[in-house]
Amino acid sequence: MTSGIARRVAAYFRDRAKLRGEKVALSARESEVLMLLSKGYANKEIADKLGLGIETVQTYLKHIYRKMHVHSRSEALVKYLSGESIQP
Q1: 44-61 pLDDT, tens per residue?
Q2: Domains of the chain, CATH where assigned
């Protein structure tokens, strides 16, 4: 994905979240997983850093996707990096 397209996608999600007033409440561990994901870490690296199994990281990602109403890592990252829809 080019940077121009990424900006458009981020703007789309940011605007959509603003219109709905949507806020996603993630657990502390889900937030950690998402933050490491945003830094480019693979599931195995996230598991190693947090002392978890890969399957556990995958489960956290499934929960994150469900809460954020997304279907992929890139959608979750765009929504996360837009900063509009995540509650601390």
Answers
A1: 999 999 999 999 999 999
A2: 3-87 (1.10.10.10)
Q: Which amino acid is at 39?
A: K
Q: What are phi and psi of 52, to 5 degrees?
A: -120, 170
Q: Is the overall model pTM greater than 0.85, yes or no? A: no
The label of the residue with tokens 């996603």 reads: 24
What is the DSSP secondary-structure string of the chain? --HHHHHHHHHHHHHHHHHHT--EE--HHHHHHHHHHHTT--HHHHHHHHT--HHHHHHHHHHHHHHHT-SSHHHHHHHHHH-SSEE-
